[in-house]
Amino acid sequence: MNASLAPNSSPLHAAPDTAAMRAELKTAKARLIEAFAAKGHLDALTHGLAREVDRTLACAWQGCALPSTAALVAVGGYGRGELAPFSDIDILVLLQDAPDREEELRIERFIGMAWDLGLDIGSSVRTVEQCLDEAANDVTVHTSLLESRRVAGDAGLYDRFSARFREALDPRAFFTAKLLEMRQRHAKYQDSPYSLEPNCKESPGGLRDLQLIIWITRAAGFGGSWSELESRGLITEREARELSRNETFLKRLRTNLHILAGRRQDILVFDLQTALAEQLGFRVKPAKRVSEQMMRHYYWAAKAVTQLSTILLQNIEAQLFPSTSGITRVFSEHFVEKQGMIEIVNDDVFIREPNTILEPFLLYEQLPGIKGLSARTLRALYNARDKMDVHWRRDPVNRKLFLQILKQPAGVTHALRLLNQTSVLGRYLLNFRRIVGQMQHDLYHVYTVDQHILMVLRNMRRFAVTEHAHEYPFCSQLITNFERPWVLYVAALFHDIAKGRGGDHSTLGMADARRFCRDHGIDEEDTALIVWLVQHHLTMSQVAQKQDMSDPEIIKRFADLVRNERRLTALYLLTVADIRGTSPKVWNAWKGKLLEDLYRITLDVLGGAQHDPHAALQSRKEEALSLLRLEAVPEGAHRELWNQLDVAYFLRQDAADIAWQTRELVHHVNAPTPVVRARPGAISNSLQVLVYVKDRPDLFAAICSYFDRSGLSVLDAQINTTRHGFALDNFLVEHSDPEMHARDIANLVERQISEALAQAATTLPEPSKGRLSRLSRSFPATPRVDLRADDRGQYYILSVSANDRPGLLYSIARVLAEHRIGLHAARINTLGERVEDVFLLHSSALNDNKLQIRLETEMLKAIAV
């Protein structure tokens, strides 16, 4: 039935056959999707789906005999007359007056029927006045009504509504409201299109940004298509072509994503990226997955959308608010300030004088109050891309300007981000251009390589900003006294620049960094430091997190590598900034403590002091004793416990933990029953659990078994064995349910672990095979097990690397318990979705090579999914 026909309002009209209509709609939808898969005609699919929904709803409208004075109106995306395969359907039942009870029942029946037809309906029922009131108070309603069109019912009523809505429309207020809404939306997605699982509709640079422009220009009467905006002079022909091309790509991406998922799906999840890339025609290349190629294409499209939409929005603002667009400052013969933006005086300045291309970025850093680059400047940079060639990169003037940008006391992060957003950074540093949109498949980084680098640089800069000194006070203190901190920014810029090229990125990055330093006239001393930092940017975290810092030989080797305090400080600052720039999940207070301890111990050795574990032990003890006195623990009460603890215990614990554990155990040194204590941990919503009990071979496994059954994930563990045969174990755990607060379960955990350990040893239960996260399933890490004797032949070191999952630690512990292998110490290291755990084992049986092979084999089987 034609959607524009008025419905039969007779209550005697035959009820429509809902099942038949649903089947017909389903068949039509399948036919359209099949045709799209065969021919790839995107508009035929999206407009065809909208037409089929129009036809179905119009039929239902007529069958429900709604009032002849009412109208069915499509709004939102459906109002545009295009639908993705599983988009929701937004409709408005427009009324002349408030409905009576009979009309309400008919409307309810119609909406219910729409759901029964398999349509994901979002509905509203309003009079014209109510629509205007809602639009005035809610910009979301305002936006959806802006794209309305009549599907069925009273055409006159809809025309009156359209006229009233247009009269009430305030383009300036709408522009301001949509900009604020866009900023909130961008903030929700970390103000970046470069997350590894972006939302192709809502993330910055996604379809919503393009839709927002059309909404604003429609409201202002400037046009509703890129060609109309071009004819009005808001964009150039080239920009209109770029916008149209990227919009088509994003729409095609989203459409295929819906079809592949079989539901509304706008997030480019890892699970679907490979299949989606294959649907879109990407093919495997050497060292390049199809998903990687597709995502890189997406990031470049999102970047272009961000650039062009910024230009367009500024041009629209200038036309809507012409009185505020005058020149407020003159900076030079080439640059002025307009509306807080840096604007060029002549459109062809960058083409005529390429040496000026980097100048606005330096001005952006140097001039307070500047918000960014104007649309005219951005457009000129976009049009001057061909001028950013090898001669431009080699020009001494440009090299000097670029180094000046890095050396500024403020604004470095913002300037480099702007350089990247405008693609100038990638054209100046070609190796940086190669990593723009480069994904990382290590379960550790959550950003593309270019965004990770800029995040590390941002972290480094924050150390030097007074307002952020409270975040990492020790780092802020160190960078304040660090001469020429810009050297650190260069190292940060190059530390991962060789990712994705094959080979060791640290070694390849060294060559890039050395070449940059030579080309930019950086002196020999600073060049040596930059190159050394790029080569060793992973070393400090590996020593702190994987090696025993109580071993003087390990510290001596690290000190010999570092050589002097300047190198040590630089490496420490880069390491902290690097770990923090990988993922919000990776950094925690425990890693911070390990790195700071390594820094301080190494600094003492560099100062001429021998790394004396006994001196460090004494210092740690004295600090812990001071805390115990504050808590009124009797003088000398600690001795019985401390006499049973070795040097390693005091070097692995900080003074606050030593004092807490001592206070809890001072009267229980030879306790016949388990002593278990729990308190909130240093990491948000974590729980620190102390277990003190007579040691036994299956003890660690029994504790891990409890954590496994209780949904508690072990973030860190410190395992200690006293001289008189007691285990003093310290765990940092968090609950799998984020709503379960650590403080609320502390008493329960204490009681249940005590009860479990007090029972006679029984057969350990089978570990749960917890499901891997989506990320781990998409990028499975190869499980690795390495067992070797330590340098002194006293213990065996077991290293385990695998995808993290519930029950993993218990699986490892159970294998050790089954072979009755004692655990002297453990370091549990969770790196995002991956774990790298190290266990110090003691058992004479491990001298048997056959047992070693059997243990490694069983361990690999245990950690495999």
TrEMBL record:
Pfam families: GlnD_UR_UTase, HD, NTP_transf_2
BP GO terms, sorted: regulation of nitrogen utilization
CDD domains linked: ACT_ACR-UUR-like_2 (cd04899), ACT_UUR-like_1 (cd04900), HDc (cd00077), NT_GlnE_GlnD_like (cd05401)
Domain ACT per the UniProt entry, residue ranges: 688-768, 797-865
Start and end residues of each stretch annotated as Uridylyltransferase: 1-330
Catalytic activity: [protein-PII]-uridylyl-L-tyrosine + H2O = [protein-PII]-L-tyrosine + UMP + H(+); [protein-PII]-L-tyrosine + UTP = [protein-PII]-uridylyl-L-tyrosine + diphosphate
Notes on how activity is controlled: Uridylyltransferase (UTase) activity is inhibited by glutamine, while glutamine activates uridylyl-removing (UR) activity.
UniProt-listed InterPro entries: ACT-like_dom_sf, ACT_dom, HD/PDEase_dom, HD_domain, NT_sf, PII_UdlTrfase/GS_AdlTrfase, Polymerase_NTP_transf_dom, UTase/UR
SMART domains on file: HDc
Keyword Repeat annotated: yes
Key words, A-Z: Hydrolase, Magnesium, Multifunctional enzyme, Nucleotidyltransferase, Repeat, Transferase
Signal peptide: none
Cofactor(s) essential for the protein: Mg(2+)
Example of a GO MF term: phosphoric diester hydrolase activity
Enzyme nomenclature, EC number: 2.7.7.59, 3.1.4.-
Domain named HD: residues: 449-571
Domain text: Has four distinct domains: an N-terminal nucleotidyltransferase (NT) domain responsible for UTase activity, a central HD domain that encodes UR activity, and two C-terminal ACT domains that seem to have a role in glutamine sensing.
Database matches in PANTHER family: BIFUNCTIONAL URIDYLYLTRANSFERASE/URIDYLYL-REMOVING ENZYME (PTHR47320), BIFUNCTIONAL URIDYLYLTRANSFERASE_URIDYLYL-REMOVING ENZYME (PTHR47320:SF1)
Family to which the UniProt record says this protein belongs: Belongs to the GlnD family.
Function statement: Modifies, by uridylylation and deuridylylation, the PII regulatory proteins (GlnB and homologs), in response to the nitrogen status of the cell that GlnD senses through the glutamine level. Under low glutamine levels, catalyzes the conversion of the PII proteins and UTP to PII-UMP and PPi, while under higher glutamine levels, GlnD hydrolyzes PII-UMP to PII and UMP (deuridylylation). Thus, controls uridylylation state and activity of the PII proteins, and plays an important role in the regulation of nitrogen metabolism.
Name used for this protein in its record: Bifunctional uridylyltransferase/uridylyl-removing enzyme
Originating organism: Pararobbsia alpina
